[in-house]
Amino acid sequence: KAMYLRWLNWNLRNRLTAMLTVTVSVALGVVFFFVVVLVREQALNRRFSEIEDDVKRISREWSTPDALREIQEDFPGLEITVFNPNGHVVASTTKRSPKLVVGRQKSGDTLTFGFRDALFIFVGVASWAETEAGLRQLALVLALLWLPLTALTAAVAWYGGGLVMRPVSELVASAEKLSGSADG
Question: What DSSP state is assigned to residue 87?
Answer without folding.
Answer: S
